[in-house]
Structure formats: structure tokens, C-alpha cells
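Q: How would the C-alpha cells look for this protein?
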Amino acid sequence: MLINLVPDFLAVIGSADPVAAYGTYYHAHEQILSAYWQNYVIDPDAPQFADVVQATVAAPRDDLRAMLAHTDVLTIARTAEQRCRELLEIDVDFDVVLMIGVGGANAGEIVVDGRGMAFVCLEHFTGVANPDTHGLGLEPELIALWLAHEIAHVVRYTSPQSRSLMKSLVAHSGGDYSYWDTGRAASLRELLANEGIAVHVSRAVSPGHAVWEYYGYTRKEFARVRELAPAIERAANADADRVGLGLRLKYLLGGMSAAARTADRLVLPERAGYFVGARMVEAAIARRGLPWAVRAPAEELVAAQSEARTA
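A: Here is the predicted structure in C-alpha cell form.
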């Protein structure tokens, strides 16, 4: 189901008391927004919540309004969803959420009470970087790419046919996904495979973009990751069976310090794990297909990768 929270948010910032209106908006959509805040921003109960809300509702939105005026985001989202349903042979209900966030994450995945949601935060897709909203300035045409990426995660976490560790971890938590808890419990191999599969799904659903855009890199960042790829892969292979939140942050999260990204005296480029993960599953996907790969355990993906390379 497509859930469009954009009109409600625009009503918030157009109200006489936007801060109070955001509180009403938050509670009206708490199932979605609390999971978004907890996984991608801060705990909603933290004292900084009020400051973030104040900055969010006060930020200028000319770039967002201009983008919405000339971009049919609903059709983009519906088309991406349908394409994913076909390519991944989706066998589970889920939601696609269009929203305006608070600058945290341009897109992401949520699971609440066993139901998956893939969301995009449109402040990041206006084509114009906005320091007041923390908008990244991504082009609106990339919305489909990122939705496909997140839908792949949702299928991996919730499909009744999924045999992935991520599905088991979500089920063990009572049907709720936590970026932080799964980061503590999943092996690096599973986390890399999870992102690598999503990269390939985004390429299949929304072809024709610059190759670096599928990883969330700039052209310069992509060149640097490719240059260091053998060393990055050696470091990742050494860590593949290890578990710990620090590994997810080191290989897959932007904004980490150089010290936090150091492995065997190499400072890893930010989010280098997306490239490594995509390479790790590429041959397996070519051999077995995306519907199988998105539901397969990381160990079977690695085995299929080895079989494909020796065939």
C-alpha cells in the first residue's frame, strides 16, 4: 500500500503553530514516525527531539515545493513498487511511504509488528542541496532507485519464504526491525550481503543511472572505493564471521571517523561495504536470480557465488 504523508507534513509547516502541529502529526502516524526516529535519527524521548522538530518546521522549503510542483512522485513510487513485485516475485504485503523527514536518512526500511515499510524522505530528492533541511540535493529521478533498494530489504526481512538471518532477528524481536539491534547480532557477511542484494535490485528496477549512484557514492568516492577494492575485500573477508555493531558502522554507515573506519591499518572509504557486498553476491544472483537471492541465507549466497565462479 502507498502511504503519502507529504500533504500532512506540508499542513504542519503551514499551520499557525508548527511545533504543536508536528506533535499532532507525529502521534497520528506514530507507528511509522517513531520507528523512523529510533532507527535513523534519535530516540523520540531524547531531550534533543524538541530542538530537531523546531529546526525542521522552521526550515525553508522552496526547493521541496518546486520539486513537488513538477514531479509526479506518486507515479514514480507506484511504478517502482510494481516493478519490484514482478522482479522479486513478492509474496508478502508491505507499505511504501512517501514522507518528509528531519534530515536523517534519504531512505530506509522499517518493520513494525511484522509488516514491512520502505520509505523515502523527499527533502533529499529536490535536486538542490539544502543545509537548513540537511537535504542532499539528489535528483528526483533517483526516488525509484532508493525505493527499490529498501523494498529489497523489506522482502528479505518479512517474506514467508525468506531464510535470511535478518528475518530471524526481526522475528525474534517480536516483529520489529532495529538497525542497532540487528547490527549487534548479525554477522558482517549477512550485513554486506543484505546491502549488496539491494544494490542489484535497484539496478534492475531503475536502470540507466551512473554506476556510483546505486551505491550512494559520488563519482570521486566510487573511484576511490574501486581503487582500494582488493584491500577492502581482504579486510571484509577477515571480519566476515564477526558480529558487532562497530562492524556495521565501519563498513556501511557514513559520517564515521577515520579511526572508526580503520581495518588492518587501512582507513576504509565511507560506506565501502555497499560495493563489497554487491561484488560478493553478483555471481550468485546471475546464477540463481534475484527472487532466490533476496530470500537466501548469506552462507548459501557465498556458496552459489563460489559455484558460479568455478563453473
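DSSP finds 15 helices and six strands in the chain.

Residues 21 and 134 are 21 Å apart (CA to CA).

Upvote if useful.
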